[in-house]
Backbone:
C-alpha cells in the first residue's frame, strides 16, 4: 500500500512539473506572438489558464486563437472535458494581470465575486410588483425612500440584492426586508414584514412601490389597521398616577422577560408626554429603566433607551440619572457605531448624553473619569452613523471645556 501511494505521489509530481513546463512554454509563445506547434500567431488575450488543486487530479490550460475556430463556434471555444471539474471560461470572472519579460499582459482566470440578482423563487410573498428599471435605478429608488424616513435604519446586502431594515418610533417597531429578483427581461421587487407592527411596513412598502410605479394603484389601508385614538378621559391626580405606575414598575421587575419587555414599551409611550416626566421620576421609574437597558430581549433595551432619552430633557430626571452609578458606563458603551438593527437605540443614547451634558457636563466627566471621556471624545470624529454623530458632536462640545 505504501509503495502504491508513493508511486501515485510520484506520478502527481511528474504531471505537475510537466504541466508547469507546458505553462511556461505557452506563456512565452503568447508573449512572442507565435506558436511552436501550429505556426499560428497567438494573441496574449487568447490564453486562459485553468488550475485546480493538485488533490483533485486535474490541470488544464487553454490557448485559443479566434481565427482558427470553425464557423460553428464563432464566439468562444470550450473543450469538452469528460473528466474532472469543468473548465473556467474567461467570460466567467474578473482577471488579474501578470507582466512577462516582454511587458505583455496575460490574463489569469479567477473565480467571480460579482454580485448578481437572484432569480425569482418558486414562491413569492403577496407584497410584490414588477419593475422594468435597471438594478441600479431600483437600488436608488429604494434607498431614497428609506432615507426619507428617520425612523428607519437598514443595511443592503449586495450579494443577495436585499435590504434588511428596522422601523422604530416609540413603542412601535417593525423589522422588514426588500428583495429584488430577476424575472426574464424585468425585475420583481418584494417586501416582507419579518416581525413587529404591520402598519409601518405597509406604509414603507407603499412608498417604495409608488416611487417606481407611479401610475399603479396601491390598496389603501383599511380603517381597522389605522391607529384608533383612545377616548378623552379626566386627568388622574398625582396620587392615582403613582398607584398606576407602581403596577408597571412591578412588571419591570418581574422575572419573566416578556413582562419586562412590555413594561419598557409602556414606559416608552408614557415618556412622550412631557407632563408625565416628574411623575415617572417620583415613581422610581428611572432606576428600573436603567436596568431594562441591559436586557437584550425582544428589543427591551431599545425601548428603555428611547424612554430615558425622552426623560433626559427634564432637569429633575437628569440629576437622578447622573447619580445612578451604573447609568453613565452603560450609556457610553452604547454611543458608538454598531449593527443597523440597534441604530435607533444608539442614536437615542447619544441624544440622552447630549441632553445631560448640556447642564451637567462637569459631573459626567467627574463620574466617568477624564481618561474614559478622552477616549470617547477622540472617537466621535470617526463615527459613521450621521445621526449618531450629530448628537455625539453636541455632547462633545459640552464635555471639552470640562477636561
Residues:
Amino acid at each position: 500500500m505504501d509503495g502504491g501511494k508513493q508511486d501515485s505521489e510520484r506520478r502527481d509530481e511528474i504531471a505537475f512539473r510537466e504541466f508547469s513546463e507546458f505553462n511556461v512554454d505557452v506563456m512565452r509563445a503568447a508573449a512572442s506572438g507565435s506558436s511552436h506547434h501550429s505556426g499560428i500567431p497567438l494573441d496574449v488575450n487568447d490564453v486562459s489558464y485553468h488550475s485546480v488543486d493538485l488533490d483533485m487530479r486535474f490541470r488544464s490550460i487553454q490557448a485559443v486563437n479566434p481565427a482558427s475556430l470553425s464557423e460553428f463556434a464563432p464566439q468562444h471555444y470550450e473543450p469538452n472535458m469528460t473528466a474532472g471539474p469543468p473548465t473556467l471560461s474567461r467570460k466567467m470572472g474578473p482577471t488579474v494581470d501578470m507582466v512577462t519579460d516582454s511587458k505583455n499582459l496575460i490574463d489569469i482566470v479567477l473565480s467571480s465575486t460579482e454580485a448578481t440578482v437572484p432569480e425569482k423563487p418558486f414562491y413569492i410573498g403577496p407584497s410584490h410588483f414588477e419593475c422594468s428599471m435597471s438594478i441600479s435605478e431600483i437600488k436608488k429608488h429604494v434607498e431614497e425612500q428609506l432615507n426619507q424616513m428617520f425612523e428607519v435604519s437598514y443595511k443592503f446586502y449586495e450579494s443577495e440584492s436585499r435590504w434588511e431594515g428596522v422601523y422604530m418610533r416609540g413603542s412601535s417597531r417593525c423589522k422588514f426586508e426588500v428583495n429584488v429578483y430577476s424575472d426574464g427581461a424585468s425585475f420583481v421587487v418584494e417586501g416582507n414584514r419579518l416581525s413587529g407592527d404591520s402598519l409601518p411596513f405597509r406604509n414603507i412598502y407603499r412608498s417604495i412601490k409608488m416611487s417606481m410605479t407611479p401610475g399603479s394603484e396601491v390598496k389603501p389601508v383599511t380603517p381597522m389597521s389605522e391607529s384608533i385614538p383612545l377616548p378623552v378621559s379626566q386627568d388622574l391626580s398625582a396620587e392615582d398616577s403613582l398607584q398606576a405606575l407602581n403596577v408597571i414598575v412591578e412588571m419591570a421587575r418581574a422575572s419573566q422577560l416578556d413582562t419586562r419587555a412590555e413594561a419598557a414599551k409602556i414606559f416608552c409611550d408614557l415618556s412622550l408626554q412631557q407632563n408625565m416626566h416628574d411623575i415617572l421620576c417620583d415613581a422610581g421609574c428611572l432606576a428600573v429603566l436603567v436596568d431594562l437597558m441591559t436586557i437584550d430581549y425582544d428589543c427591551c433595551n431599545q425601548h428603555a433607551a428611547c424612554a430615558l432619552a425622552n426623560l433626559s430633557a427634564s432637569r429633575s430626571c437628569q440629576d437622578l440619572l447622573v447619580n445612578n452609578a451604573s447609568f453613565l458606563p452603560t450609556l457610553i458603551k452604547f454611543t458608538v457605531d454598531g449593527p443597523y438593527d440597534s441604530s435607533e437605540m444608539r442614536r437615542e443614547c447619544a441624544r440622552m448624553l447630549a441632553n445631560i451634558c448640556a447642564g451637567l457636563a462637569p459631573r459626567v466627566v467627574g463620574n466617568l473619569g477624564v481618561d474614559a471621556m478622552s477616549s470617547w471624545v477622540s472617537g466621535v470624529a470617526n463615527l459613521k452613523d450621521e445621526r449618531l454623530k450629530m448628537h455625539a458632536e453636541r455632547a462633545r462640545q459640552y464635555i471639552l471645556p470640562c477636561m
